[in-house]
Amino acid sequence: MFGKNEIVGQKYFKPVEDTDKLFVTSRFMTLQGEGPYRGEPAFFIRLAKCNLNCSFCDTFFDDGDWMTFDEIEHAINYTIDEFFEKQGLDRPEWAQYWSSEFKKNPTNLMDDIMPSRPAKKMQMVLVMTGGEPMLQKNIGPFLERMSYIFENTQIESNGTIVQQIPNTTTLVVSPKCAEKNGVATKYLAPKHEMLKRADCLKFVMSADPDSPYNEIPEWAHIWRKETGKPIYISPMNIYNTLPQKSKMVRAAQNDITIDQRSTIDEVISFWEPGLLDMKANQRNHEYAAAYCVKHGFTLNLQLHLYASLP
Known about the structure:
This protein is α/β, with parallel strands linked by helices. It has helices at 69-85, 139-146, 192-197, 218-227, 244-252, 258-263, 278-295, 303-306; strands at 21-31, 41-47, 65-68, 122-129, 150-157, 169-173, 177-180, 183-187, 200-205, 231-235, 298-299. Strand 7 (177-180) and strand 8 (183-187) form a beta hairpin. Mean pLDDT is 90; it is low at 102-116.
C-alpha cells in the first residue's frame, strides 16, 4: 500500500461543504489507462482521503491542498501548457477551449476569447478519482462546471457513498473489499442508487484463489445481464517496493508539495527494475485475461504504466 491512507468519512469535509473548494492531492495530464476512455488523452484530478483502506492500493492520497474551482481551472490550464512545453510543442487546438458560460470571469479563459464566440470544449476526458472522490459533496457542482470545458467527464468511485452527479458525467463504480488486518474478506456491495446510476463497473482481479478478488461477485454478473452495461477487469499489480523517486523525496522532506505529488508520485513505470513482482503480476494478468474471455468482460492493462506516464 502506498501512503498511510487514513480512513475518513464525509464528516471530515463538512466544514467546507457550502463553499466551492475541493481537497486536491494531485492534478496531471496523461492518457487514461482504464475504463471506457482507455487510451485517450485525459486530465486527472485526484482528491484526497478515502473511506476504505485497501492493502493493495497503489496511489498516494493522504495529503492535499484546498483549492477553489477557479484555482483548479487555472491549474488545469497551466498544467496542460507545461505538459506540451516540456515536449517543445505549442498547446494543440484539440486541448484548447472557450466557453460563454464563464465570460463573466475572463481571467480564467484564453486572452483572445470574445463572449460572442461559440463554446468549444477540449477534446479529452476529465477524470475525478481518489482516494474516494464522493466523500466531497462539492464534486457535483464542480463536474457540472467542467462539463462546459471538457468533451467528457468521468468520476471513479467505490460506490459506497451516494452523491448526485451530472447526467453528463460517466460514473465508473469500482467496488472494493472490506479488510481485516490487511487481508481482504468480502466485497462491499455499492449502494443501490450508485449501482443504478453506474455507466460501467470496474474490478481489480487477483489469481490468488483464497482472495475475494479472485472472482467477481454474483450481484455484478446479474447487473451486467440486466443492464447490458460493460464490466472492466484490471489485473492486480503487486509491488515489491514504493517507486524509487517517491521514496527518495519522502526521505528528504516531511511536507510534499502538490507539484511533487502531481509528478513524482504519479509517474509509475511498469519497466522500473525491481518495482513490481513480475511473476505475481504475470499470474494476475493471465488469470484476468482468461476470466474476461470466459465471461465476456473487457480487460484493462493500465496503459499509462506501460507508457511511463502519470
